[in-house]
Input
Amino acid sequence: MGGSNKIYVGDGTGLRISHIGDASLTTSSGNFELKDVLFVPDIKKNLISVSPLTYNNSCIFEFSSEKFLIKDRRTGWILATESRMGGLYALDKGEQALVALKFGKAPEGVWHQRLGHPQ
Output
């Protein structure tokens, strides 16, 4: 897929989105469904938006100064416990995201909505 859709990072640089797809994030407690994953070849870190993750997986995030928990919304069972590293809440480096990309593109306004940015 070609196109001009981009995400913008903190310094204002626009990074090209090359593909959009769905993925499964595998943890020791099971899988989390990730929808409309953006594949951005030039991004330095993988990022996950909490809002769509909680919506698509019926789960709750709890944050503290040292870690975060992902809990099942119905049962309250802990699905994953992860740490805070270098000022960021990070998933264990052993976790894998298996991406099945589907091709498509959307107008810039849609990307702002998907990423939770005001238009």
Q: What stands out?
A: The chain has one domain: 6-114. The chain is about 15% helix and 45% strand.
